[in-house]
Amino acid sequence: MTTVHVTVRIINVFSYPTGFERARKETGLLLSSTATPKCLLENDAGSILQPTVVTRTLSITSRLRDALRLSVAPGLSAPSGLSTFRGVAGMWREYNVMELATFDAFKQWPVRVWQFYAGRRSRALAANPNRAHYALAELAKQRDFITVSQNVDGLSPRANHPDDKIFYIHGSLFELRCESCEYVERNFDDPLTAALKTSDDEDAPLPDLPLEVLPHCPACGKLLRPNVVWFYEDLPENDVKQIKEWMDGGPIDLLLVIGTSSNVNPAARYSVEARSKGARVAVFNLDGKDKPFGRMRSKDWFFQGDAAVLVPELLKSVVGEVDEDGRVVVLPPHEKECELQRQRPPPTDNSSDDRSKA
Predict the structure, then answer these.
(1) Cα–Cα distance for residue pair 263/322, rounded to 1 Å
(2) Worst-scoring range by mean pLDDT, 36-40, 64-68, 313-317?
(3) Contact (CB, 8 A) for 122 and 199
(4) pLDDT (mean) for 98-110
(5) Which of 10, 26, 39, 210 has minimal CB crowding within 10 Å?
(6) pLDDT (mean) for 182-194
(7) Which of 154-168, 265-279, 294-308, 322-336 has the highest mean pLDDT?
(8) Percent of the chain with pLDDT over 90
(9) Least confident range of 29-33, 108-112, 229-233
(10) Mean pLDDT to the nearest integer, 346-354
(11) How confident is the model at residue 158, as a pLDDT?
(12) In the annotation, is 170 catalytic?
C-alpha cells in the first residue's frame, strides 16, 4: 500500500467524486486503484476523497523513518467519538461551556460545573482509544519523542502511551484537586458520586443538588474541583518547564500537529519553537481551512482527513500495522522494504510538475 508523498508547497486539496481516472488527469499522478492508499484517497465506494497532490521526492514517511527527535501536539478525542470541548455551538444545555470552564463559574455554580464534568467523564470512560493513539504510543517507545497533549479524556494512558513521553498540559478529567490544600487524587469512578449519575436524556432537567453530595477533599473537607486547566488559568508550570528543556535539548526533526487548531496556542507556539530547532511541520486536520496562516513552509505537509486513519497509515512503515485493539504487527524485513519502496514516488518530468502546481 503506497503512502502519499506531499508537494513542495501546500496545494489546493481536491475532491474527486468520479474516481481514479479523473484524479490521474487532473493531478498528473501515477495513481491506480491497487496502488493508492485507501485510507488517504478513496472511500468504501471507491471514490477518491481529497487527495493531496504528490510530487515531493522525499515523503513524510521517509522523514518519519529517519527522524530521531519528534514532537507532537495531538487532538484525538473526536475520532474516538467524543465531541470537541466546545461541543455544538459551544453550548451545554443552556450554558456556554467557555463560561462554565472557569474558576469563577465553579465558585458561583459548583453543582452545574460538576454536572457538566461528570457527563464528560462518563462519555470519556465509554470511549475507546483509536488507532492513532496506539500508533503514537508505539512511536514514543522507539524514538526520542514527546507528546504535548491538550486532551483531558484519559485515552492516551489507556493506549499505554509511556508516561515519561507525554505531557497533559490541560490536565485530566480523572484527577480531582483541592484548591485549599493542593490534595490531588486520581479517580475513575462512574458515577463520581451517586448524585452525579448522568442521564442519557439531554432534555431531562438538571436536578438541583446540595453541595454535600459533591466530591470533597478527604484531607481538609473543602470542595474538590476537576484537575483541568480552565480558561484564564496557567498551564502546569512543571510541564511547561520540562517541555522547554526537551525542546532546548537539541535539533528537532519533525512536529506533528494532529486534530487540533494550528492557529491557536499552544500548538501555534510550539510550532514556532520546534521550527527554530530545525523541525518540519505536518498538520492533520478534518478542517481543510485550518492551516496555520503565515506559518506553513514550502517543505511542510497538510493532511485533511480523519487522524485516526491517516496517522497510523503514515506511521506503518516505522512502527508496524496497528489494529483497533492496539495490537502491533511489525512488518517482516522483506515486506517493510517493499513498503518503503512503494512509498518512494516515481520521478516526475517538468510537465507533471506543471500540472501538480496548477
Answers:
(1) 30
(2) 36-40
(3) no
(4) 95
(5) 210
(6) 95
(7) 154-168
(8) 39
(9) 29-33
(10) 38
(11) 95
(12) yes
132 and 311 in contact (C-beta within 8 Å)? yes
Per DSSP, the residues of 202-220 read TTSPPPP--GGGS-B-TTT
Per-residue b or e along 223-239, where b marks 16 or more CB atoms closer than 10 Å to that residue's CB: bbbbbbbbeeeebbeeb
Nearest to residue 160, comparing CAs of 334, 328, 278, 297?
328
For residues 217 and 183, is the Cβ–Cβ distance under 8 A? yes
Bridge-based pairing of strands 69-74 and 254-258 is: parallel
- Distances in Å between the Cα of 320 and the Cα atoms of 199, 222, 248, 311, 333 are 41, 49, 30, 12, 11
Greatest Cα-to-Cα distance within the chain, rounded to the nearest angstrom: 74
For the sheet with 184-186, list strands across it.
184-186, 171-178, 224-228
Residue 132 has pLDDT above 60, yes or no: yes
Cα gap 235→74, rounded to integer Å: 16
**Cβ atoms of 66 and 253 closer than 8 Å:** yes
Amino acid at 166: I
- Do 305 and 288 touch, CB atoms closer than 8 A? no
Q: Which residues pair with 256 in a beta bridge?
A: 72, 282
C-alpha cell at 261: 487548531
CA 260/CA 271 separation, integer angstroms:
12
Q: Which residues of 71-80 are buried (b: 16+ CB within 10 A; e: fewer)?
A: bbbbbbbbbb
Pairing state between β 328-329 and 321-322: antiparallel
User: What is the pTM (predicted TM-score) of this model?
Assistant: 0.76
Q: Strand, coil or helix: what is 73?
A: strand
Among the options 161, 170, 216, 334, which is catalytic?
170
Q: How far is CA 316 from CA 166, 185, 274, in A?
A: 21, 37, 24
Which grid cell is 175?
A: 484527577
pLDDT value at 56 more than 70 = no
What is the DSSP secondary structure assignment for residue 235, as one 8-state letter? Answer: P
CA distance 283 to 60: 11
Residue whose entry in the numeric block shows the C-alpha cell 485533511: 304
Q: Can you tell me the distance from the alpha carbon of 86 to that of 63, in angstroms, rounded to the nearest whole number? A: 34
